[in-house]
Write a structure and sequence with these properties.
heterodimer, A: 356 residues, alpha/beta, Rossmann fold, 2 domains, five-stranded mixed β-sheet, B: 247 residues, 10 helices, 7 strands, binds thiamine diphosphate, binds iron/sulfur cluster
Chain lengths: 356, 247
Amino acid sequence: MAKVLMKGNEAIGEAAIKAGCLNYFAYPITPQTEVAEYLCRRLPEENGVFLQAESEVAASYMLFGAAGAGERVFTTSSSPGISLMGEAISYMAGAQLPAVLVNIMRGGPGLGGILPAQGDYFQATKGGGHGDYRLLTLAPASVQEAVEMVMEAFTLAEKYRNPVMILGDGMLGQMMEPVEFPEGLTTAPSNKDEWATNGMGNRNSNKPNIVKSLFLTDTDLNENNLVLKAKYEEMKKHEIRYESYNTDGDYQLLLVSFGMMSRICKSAIDDLKEEGIEIGLIRPQTLFPFPDEAIRQAVDKPSCKSALSVELNMGQMVEDVERCVHGKRPVSWFGTAGGVIPTPEEVVAEIKRVLG
Amino acid sequence: MAKVFLKPKALADTHTHYCPGCTHGIIHRLVAEVIDELGVQDTTVGVAPVGCSVLAYNYFNFDFQEAAHGRAPAVATGIKRARPDLTVFTYQGDGDLASIGMAEIIHAANRGEKFVTIFVNNAVYGMTGGQMAPTTMPNQISTTSPAGRDVADVGMPIKVAELLAALQTPAFISRQAVLKPKQIFKAKKAIKKAFQYQLEGKCFSMVEVVSTCPTNWGLTPVDSLKWAEDKLLSYYKLGDYKTPEAE
Ligand SMILES: Cc1ncc(C[n+]2csc(CCOP(=O)(O)OP(=O)(O)O)c2C)c(N)n1
Ligand code: SF4
């Protein structure tokens, strides 16, 4: 398929359709409303379901219902809307339902602002809703990567029967880049007859399927948590993805940065190279599971004096980097929030400050 | 010997956890009989609420989803939109539907979602131990209105059937009771109509059922029926509030 020039938000909508997802429920919020405006035209052409819900709360439970019936489901929102979906995300994780959710992050807390930010890192990777659960979280750094990750997210959601979060930011949603769509998925979730409420008669079964997250006895609930935990451990074994940049040589400092911010970090690395200063970068593509081992090894390199986490927030991912480095090297954070985007020069200046 | 009273196929072969004199069990049976009579057990998906009927999925013999508190209409919307061939209903209490889930029920009804809602109004929060509900009667004592519901402070009880019937889109809105055999027959008729309308592709139906909660009313099962008949039915008037034929 030829490359086409598309806005991030529209490409994300098209990617879901190409992945065989024909059920979209959402509520408008800047800076991702173009996904809904795109899909309300495109989904009817594919005989799909587009529904503007009365709130993000309702949208996320429509997702729950349709996912529970064994259908591929998709929603998009931005930070305040994702907070409202927190309850349903926890219920979906507890009931083991596959779903794909996209957060095109804006600045917070509260109503915050509409400019790009990465302030929902904790919300995506550490919780957001109640109880012990994890979201497989993918962080694209270009429109092309967003397309590929959205499409892969459906496969991952179904493989693990767990919600998958795509964590982008307002820049990604609003920018136009050339994209090429990979081969799509066509089949429905393969094992759905074992768990989905798709009608007993439709699967020639005389046993009802129940979709629920309620386990009233302590042993049953502990058991469900152990099942979930085992899946999260499997994700850590098989799904970690990251990109290394300029890590072959002897770099003095390791940058860790995800999403659009990582592109600015790469420019800073290129600029410093011209001055003869080598800096490496690890860009986690999965935020959960986090590339612990890759960061640990990269920081262990004898030439590497310290690690610097660069984020569009007040220091969230840095806690994971500290966990990986485990005191072996100094770890620091550099970032901005609320839509202020650091320039490569500012990142360069911070690197020089850290190197002393 | 011919058996004249059998357990409906759509009802599971088990004991319920409901208190003696609670009418949840009667309403479950009516729903199961209707599903049997319409022959839709194989394509039905129920949505359970959070409330005393949270375990409803254990008492029926077809597919079920357990929603979060108040969200059953959104869950049912997702199921029915994605799979219009399935027969879908929600079963909700008055705290679930008329308090925390008010937005979801109003908008599902107003969009004309093609599912049925069975709304059990027992004028109290049963599961959490008898707190005030939006449907609690004036001066009715509950654990969070120990001096009786003060309408100057918290307003009058919400009449859900009238509220939803004020919307233009819904097909069938009815209020029934299960306090006497005659009412039970009528309630079943209404529930059957609601499911039939769904099968005919007509939009949203709700049957409100005035029910009892002897445990949290602090009354015997027999006195509960009397109290409901006197106090609830004089405020919550029975009948059809909206029918497709009247449109
Ligand atoms: C978000 C949330 N808030 C509160 C609760 C606690 N809770 C469980 S059941 C219930 C009230 C149910 O009352 P009602 O809907 O009237 O049903 P009944 O038990 O009377 O049948 C409440 C408040 C909950 N489970 N979830
Ligand atoms: S607490 Fe009330 S509503 Fe709940 S089972 Fe007992 S009688 Fe029924």
